[in-house]
């Protein structure tokens, strides 16, 4: 050992300060985004407006949109072209991009047009899917996110809430139209005239905004739900002590006899309707039933799914409407709301340096997936359709 009191095992060069090396995010290439035309019956909405296309193309992304994709929402092909989108007459070309944005899930035939390892963001509509759908996606090694599973940093469902807000308000406005047609009444309250009575079953987001719309028109509103916490939250969010009740058959039937409008918007755990046919028979002639969540299960026993060509039917003297996509009655508004949501989502793609970085760095994005490169990552789907489950946290190691 050296006798030098300042001995060190490092040489002068190794002791010189150097710049700190920091990890940088690997930048992924810009996306090519396909917007196919919706082929589902009565679907008028679209995922991206021309204004959003302008922002995305300015950021360097390529937008391939099928001609007529925005016509149901009153957006023209020329508006999309002026915003920088590339128009195509081929649905297969729109489906063959890096990322597919759709309102309704693609059909099994449309999945065949998707290229391997592509990304898909759409609704899932689990009650209308079968095992073949997921196996077909898996063969293409698709990474897929469903509207129903998109969460934010607070573990809320922002897109579900957004569409629910519109559906709740739209249900009251549509009920008002039907009420005027069926018996000449107006939904609301006028000086010297008894206010219209509205019964709402379900105190979730749809029920909350239906109640706000009905109260705003001056109606007499009562809300039923089996969750005391939801009813308590409703009082807080509305800022008024509207009458509420647990779903007790005698109390419900008493209110339905006097009701002018019934809005059914409760997501049930069972397939048993809450309002029986006998209760409907005791309702007033010309009263209105809007079963908002009919595609998730009937709230009213006599409800049936209806279409825009035949939006309602009359049974026991009561007008029934069961439009599964009620927000398509206001397609431009709904499309703008959905587009604004996805615009922020896709701009985060740039900030994070790509989709894989988003998955690594943001748990809310990671847990919105139901499929990652062909692997099934949602346990509820795997249990329901007998699919092999893979934990997304293990796949991302």
UniProtKB/TrEMBL annotation:
Which GO terms are recorded in the biological process aspect for this UniProt protein? L-alanine catabolic process
Q: Where are the transmembrane segments?
A: none
Please name the GO terms that the record assigns under molecular function. Answer: alanine dehydrogenase activity
Q: Which UniProt keywords apply?
A: NAD, Oxidoreductase
Q: Does the keyword NAD apply?
A: yes
Which SUPFAM superfamilies does the record match to this protein?
Formate/glycerate dehydrogenase catalytic domain-like, NAD(P)-binding Rossmann-fold domains
At the top of the EC hierarchy, this enzyme's class is oxidoreductase
Give the CDD domains listed for this entry. L-AlaDH
What are the Alanine dehydrogenase/pyridine nucleotide transhydrogenase N-terminal domain coordinates in residue numbering?
Answer: 34-167
Boundaries of each Alanine dehydrogenase/pyridine nucleotide transhydrogenase NAD(H)-binding domain copy? 176-322
Superkingdom, natural source: Bacteria
Please name the PROSITE patterns in this protein's record: ALADH_PNT_2
Listed InterPro entries: Ala_DH (IPR008141), Ala_DH/PNT_CS2 (IPR008143), AlaDH/PNT_N (IPR007886), AlaDH/PNT_NAD(H)-bd (IPR007698), NAD(P)-bd_dom_sf (IPR036291)
Q: Does the keyword Phosphoprotein apply?
A: no
Q: What is its EC number?
A: 1.4.1.1
What GO cellular-component annotations does this UniProt entry give? plasma membrane
Name the family the entry cites: Belongs to the AlaDH/PNT family.
* Name this polypeptide is given: alanine dehydrogenase
Whose protein is this, by species? Answer: Bergeyella zoohelcum ATCC 43767
